[in-house]
Write the structure tokens for this entry.
Amino acid sequence: MAGIAGYGAFIPRRRITTEEIARQWGKDPGTIQRGLLLQEKSVPGFDEDTITISVAAGRSALARSGVSPSRVGALYIGSESHPYAVKPSGTVVAEALGIGPDVHVADFEFACKAGTEAMFVALALVESKRVDYALAIGADTSQGAPDDALEFSASAGGAAYLFGRDDPLAEVVEAVSYTTDTPDFWRREGEFYPRHGGRFTGEPAYFKHVTAATSRILEKTGLEPGDFRFAVFHMPNGKFPLSVGKALGFTRQQIEPGWIVPTMGNTYSGSSPTGLAAVLDLADPDDLILITSFGSGAGSDSFVLRATGLLPQRRGLAPSVRSMLDGQHRYVTYGEYAKYREKIIVND
Amino acid sequence: MREVAIVAAGMTRFGELWGASLRDLFVEAAQQTVESAGADRVDAIYVGNMSAGQFVGQEHLGPLMADHLGMAGVPCIRVESACASGGVALRTAFLEVASGASDLVLAAGVEKMTDGADVTEVLATASDQETEVYHGATFPALYAMIARAHMLSHGTTEEDLAWVSVKNHHHGALNERAQFRREVTTDQVLGSALVSEPLRLLHCSPVSDGAAAVLLCPLDQAAQYTKTPVAIRGAAMATAAMALADRRDISFLDAVALSGAKAYEMAGIGPEQLDLAEVHDCFSIAEICCIEALGLAPPGQGRHCARTGETGLGGRIPVNTSGGLKSKGHPVGATGVAQVVELFEQLTGAAGARQVPDAEFGLAQNMGGTGASSVVHILQAV
């Protein structure tokens, strides 16, 4: 059975607190902390972007798999912040990881589910035996307009998944996708910040699609919420994944290990994949894991995974998500944040 | 003039109705109304709408709405007076029936506000572009100035304002068509985010979609359509200076007082004979100003009424039993008609948990901008 042969994640070390952002705009931090369940978020430095995050996460995925980069036949990166509008992120990442040139490469975009979109396609190519190994990455240096609610969540990070048929760390039991045309959040060509429909991003968008994809995969597999040890739902803020999980019948205990948003923020395409990496850092053999992403526009991908005996042996070969979240980090002021996010106009 | 009756009323739920377009909303409310009267054709239609052109890029609502109601051919025009558009559409329909020009006229109001437009900017077009908007004023800011003036003149407090929201949410919780069917406490109101000092989020009515409609005919023909008609005894409109700076007293709404006085005179009753009122509480301060201008509270004393329960259900003069704009929602062009839908239900004993016992006279007051236009209707159970 095809599955995840290796995984890795990366989260930048800089952080900015909800309080610091709220103070800048004269908002009440307590209201936002309570309303969105967000304490702080990661901030990329000048030398960190979707490509560097992808390389770091991809290296860890290859390290955990023990697979030679030359055997990777496909590389897909899902992101809302590819550094180039035209020119793939994937080519840089492939070269940096020693993958190719006999490799199929593409950059994906589907708002916050571009990462799982890459995973879905990578898995299918491996299952069809078109390639032996396919690397799928979800990474972002997310954009959020100053003084928009998104500014409290939009953060940086990502995760990489190497799919293969032999010796997986976690088998893929099933994968489904659910998509409709629902314009809840968008960024037009040439615009720097995304726009969104406020509460329209909730019920008719996030909740509808996450619920539909999850219900369908449960139906298809005959599994029930109680069968899973872990569940990961896309994390646009702290509240949505807890609410949708509860409505679907999952407990806080199942969700909390992958619920990294309160201190990481929303890494858009990297959000649910990084949550999944945090869960793989903990899972025991035979644990069932559910992950459902959400991408505005809108759609959800849902996967059911089963951890294997190899997982505990391999996870020590690369840094854990919690070690990057809770380990060495540095808080920046709003001024530094504005500088790093290139919100200050300077002469070249 | 002929005596005029309302023989049927209908409305959509108010709220963020993402699945319904402008025409869907109108058709739902209009169809409910026409069907409940058993009428298959009307003589004319008036559609109150503030700003479909800016909210959804649609003007020329007359033929569009008549057509989608299955009544192409019937004269139908859109009537605009900012947030008083609905009330003014009703008054125009009243005049058409009263004059003898038509026998069966539909008065409706509709607004679709959640389709992506910058709502604050669109609403601001109802204030003075040259002397207010140009300088950065928005409606919350203008009503905040009214609130400040009221505080200075009459000692009104932020807590007084909060009680208006608490009362209207209490009423709205009983209304299945309300946008916010939940109670709030004064602590929640006073702890909500500041929008424009001293107004907080829970002092402000929401952005809403919705439609409402009522059907009018001569009182002596009402029996053809219903056993429980409601007579329109007063229908009056007045205007005042558009810009706050041009007013005699910022904390007193002249157009509301004038439209109220004309309506009372026409109906031959005074405020003390009213059993209930729906007033335009777009911000909590507005309800206080309106009940003072309408004589439901002595000048400067309106601030106490929500706290003491005088304007609550079971009180001396229940105000905004529907939940008001605050809790029921405020799809601007629909509001004036929806107020009258509430009165129609109250005066026909169909208001359920919100019923004011034995209600005979009800007043609806609907205004545009910061009260530069105001329209008042007085209805009587017959």
